Amino acid sequence: MNAHTEIERALRAAAPYALVGTVRDFLAEKYGARSVQLLLADYGMTVLNPVDPSDGLGQPLSVYNSPQGRAFGSQRPHEGRTGPDDAADHYFPVTVRGERLGILTVRLPSARSTPHVMDDLTHVAELLGHELVVAERETDHYQRARRTTRLTLAAEMQWQLLPARSFAAPEYAIGAQLEPAYAIHGDNFDWAAEGDQLSVAVTNGLGEGIRASLLTNLAVNALRNARRAGIGIADQAALADQAIYDQHRGAAHVSTLLLRFDLATGAVDAVDAGSPQLWRLRGRTVTRVALDAQLPLGMFEESQYVVQHLQARPGDRLLLVSDGVYDAVSPLGEKYAERGLARAVLATRLLSAAAVPGAVLRELAEHRSSDTLDDALVMCIDWFGRQDARG
Asked: Which UniProt keywords apply (predicted)?
């Protein structure tokens, strides 16, 4: 039995809360590893938290200015300094289908730090990532490790509703982030990948706290229920609109932007039902994509929605932003959408889709006139298209 098969079997047999210990024991036996630590990105994507602080590193590490953070940002293995014991630290991204979970750190004797061993450890990090996703259905161990402080109840509800924060496919790459990460209440994003299409939704429930979170939960699940029935996005909006109206009789509503991409052609169907905006970077030009504004979901009984048609080109970058982004006001009264948002999109054009939302939100925090951050959502979609569709 080879090492890859052994670690795969060991991880599958391990208790959901014991994955790190299983990897640690395996790497110590097979490669003489002197220490093994798993660091997970927190909800704000600003620090890497140790899963088992008692086993070594006890303090969070910055995503921006630490060797582990550089490996996380670049999504490439990184080697640290060799210590006095003639052992070197190695940092391996733990990523699942484009979702960046964290970093696996391994200290190895210098003599064992060969290219072959590095390939093996890269594979171990990939396996660990997949097992983490499965294990989180059965334990809170890793959810706790992602927190630098307690989530509000509304934020807990929102994070449990979300898909992954990033995803990659041959035709596109997605990244999204919410702020304030530990106190979000109404903003939400969702997507679903299929073999022939990509469906995307951005929603913003009216109100604050639990009220907004409950409203958004109703909207997102109504949209998912309609989408999974296989109907078009206009009818998805109409059914979700009816579900919200039946519950609140027009006293509450949800702003929504729905997109559906045809992967073969880049054709995009869009329904703009409220406040989220769509911006596009094409070449070096940033523009807001004007859509016909329709009624938010749940405002009136039996609203009807109309699909608009757009065309994505290979190389396009699309940003979906909530009103907490584009309406944010500077100390001088300037809205972020006037100049700041376009500048931020251009300044981040070399970053991956997964890294863009956090970078834009950091720029937004510097622009705002208050330290109190309203719900703010940024979703980035990089469109590559299909090779056969490019001619």
From this structure: Hydrolase
Distance (Å, whole) CA 349 – CA 347: 6
Total number of residues shown for the chain: 391
Q: What is the DSSP string of 123-184?
A: HHHHHHHHHHHHHTTT-SHHHHHT-SSPPPHHHHHHHHH---SEEE-SSEEEEEEEESTTT-
Sole residue written with tokens 């972020």 = 336
206-244 pLDDT tens trace:
888 999 999 999 999 999 999 999 999 999 999 999 999
Q: How far, in Å, are 2, 46, 146, 223, 296 from residue 253 at the CA level?
A: 57, 32, 32, 14, 6
Residue type, 17: Y
Each residue's pLDDT tens digit, 237-276: 999 999 999 999 999 999 999 999 999 999 999 999 998 9
Instruction: Tell me the C-alpha distance between 265 and 197, whole Å.
Output: 10
Q: What is the mean pLDDT of the chain?
A: 93
CA angle 27, 33, 34 (to 5 degrees): 135
Cα–chain center distance at 61: 20
User: What backbone torsions phi and psi does residue 279 show, to the nearest 5 degrees?
Assistant: -120, 155
In contact, 57 and 47? CB cutoff 8 Å: no
Question: Alpha carbon of 168 to those of 185, 192, 234, 320: distances in Å?
Answer: 27, 12, 26, 17
**Could you tell me if 127 and 7 are in contact, meaning their C-beta atoms sit under 8 angstroms apart?**
yes
Q: How far apart are CA 231 and CA 235, in angstroms?
A: 6
CA distance 257 to 288: 14
Phi, psi of 192 (to 5 degrees): -140, 125
Token pair for 107: 């200290």
- Beta-carbon neighbour count of residue 305 at 10 Å? 21
pLDDT in tens, 273-291: 998 999 999 999 999 999 9
